[in-house]
Amino acid sequence: MKPRLASPLIVLASVAITVGMGLAVLWQWAAANTTFDPQPTIAATADPTLNLTTPVLSLRRAPGVLSRRLNVDEFAAELQPLLDATDGTSCSAVAVDGQIVAAENPSIPVIPASNLKLAVAAVALDVLGANYTFATAAVGELGSDGVVAGDLGIIGGGDPVLSTDWWPTAQVNAGHPPINVTRLEDLADQLVAAGLTRVAGRVVGDGSRYDDEFFGPSWDPSLKVAEGGPYDALLVNDGWTTQSIGGVAADPALGAAQLFTALLRERGVPVSQGAVAGVAAFSNEIAAVQSRPLSAIIEEMLLTSDNNTAEMLVKEIGLMDSGVGSTAAGLQAITNRMLGWGVPLEGVVLIDGSGLARDSRLTCATLVALLAHGSVDDALGKGLPVAATSGTLTDVFVGSLVAGNLRAKTGTLSGVKALAGYLPVVGGSTIQFAVVLNTPGVDEGTAYLSIWEDRLAPALVTYPSAATVAELAPR
Q1: Band of the pLDDT at 427, cuts 50, 70, 90?
Q2: 416-424 and 430-438: which strand pairing?
Q3: Class of domain 71-128+304-310+321-465
Q4: Which residue among 44, 79, 252, 315 is least packed, with the fewest CB closer than 10 Å?
């Protein structure tokens, strides 16, 4: 259903009547309170050529309102082909500065796929802050002789992009290599610089900051590892310990400990008892490595559609909001924040943070409201892929008038294709839009492009096309 808008003539006529009544009352009051002067002073006559010719009750006395109404009406007409192409199991909504101007099924719950990451990003920025960082620490008792007599603990701080140097160029990342990573090598180098010469015990990988749920419980088995998981508070290379098929550690903390042990040995630091996963027994910090700010982590998640980053951010949100590093706690915090922002939540179901769960649900009205709560110029907007330029939109909208300007998050599952984002326009306004297609086969080939590139993009660039405020201003 498209929103019904009041006639501009009715609105402006009502304004005119109200203004006229007010002027009549003021006239009567002025007449009753004016003293007659038998010899009034004659003022200089104004140059009539300087007088505006627009009557007081003209529609031109409200040029901003009139221009907006005319432009919105023309824009809604341009969007009609998009609405016509939105079937009964899908939704679309387009807003200007947060006000929906055209929509089809905006309130029906749909499978959002990776568009769910928009909610995670928005709430993470609110709960944690754009400058929040994740620390990975090495703890233990370093003797004056450079020996850690017992275990060396590596405590995970929830850094989702902790990596070794070979990981970004690994074949598994050929499509969208990770960016803005934190080098695990830097932590090993710091230990060597601190004087470490040998670890007499074990390297203990500690991921106890979060619970031990490493995959979304309702994920299709074919998506596990291939698309997301395992993830934990200590995660290196998305759990991959080698570039070979099957080189993913069942326990992310163990895999991280194994990788770190190898890094120490490469630097001439022997580890006598190997690597294990557990809770580090020492609190004495020897060295630590910080991630880049959250704004950069958000950019990595949105540009590459990183599922593990999304799931780990949900747990960090939960930890910071309620003290519990779990998916359930994080999703509850996300729900509460959106509710507090006035985002419509009817029909919304949050099962995970990445959107891999097919039982998650959002609405187009929810997505547009989330985008309107943020901005194309904040960390969420700046982190989005740019049409025909970056991330998952590198090869989309090529040659289109929105290329290089439209910013949006994509989403893909079997039978799902989603796109939601921003288009800044002339005059300072911003268009927010969401198109979520839940149609069998829509993700196959280029079926969805006929809607994205042939119906959505051409309509978006027509705003504004009607008379401007300057053109409608009083004469």
Answers
A1: confident
A2: antiparallel
A3: alpha beta
A4: 44
CA pair distance 285, 196, nearest whole angstrom: 13
Give burial (CB, 10 Å; 0-12/13-18/19+) of 247.
middle
d(CA 233, CA 170): 22
DSSP 464: S
Instruction: Report the alpha-carbon distance of residue 421 to residue 415 in Å, rounded.
Output: 21
Q: Which fold has domain 135-292?
A: D-tyrosyl-trna(Tyr) Deacylase; Chain: A; (3.50.80)
| Cα gap 69→72, rounded to integer Å | 5
Give residue 246's pLDDT: 77
Q: Which residues contact 252 (CB under 8 A, 6 or more apart)?
A: 205, 207, 214, 230, 231, 232, 234, 235, 236, 239
Distance CA 364, CA 1 (A): 12
What is the rounded CA–CA span in Å between residue 220 and residue 276? 29
Q: Compute the CA torsion angle 449, 450, 453, 454 (nearest 10 deg).
A: 180
Check: CB of residue 173 under 8 Å from CB of residue 181: no
* Model pLDDT for residues 40-96, shown as the tens digit of each residue: 444 444 454 445 555 554 444 445 566 678 899 999 999 999 999 999 999 999 999
Helices 327-341 and 364-373, packing angle to 10 deg: 80
| pTM (global) more than 0.90 | no
Q: Determine contact, residues 89/96, Cβ cutoff 8 Å.
A: no
Domains 71-128+304-310+321-465 and 135-292 share a fold: no
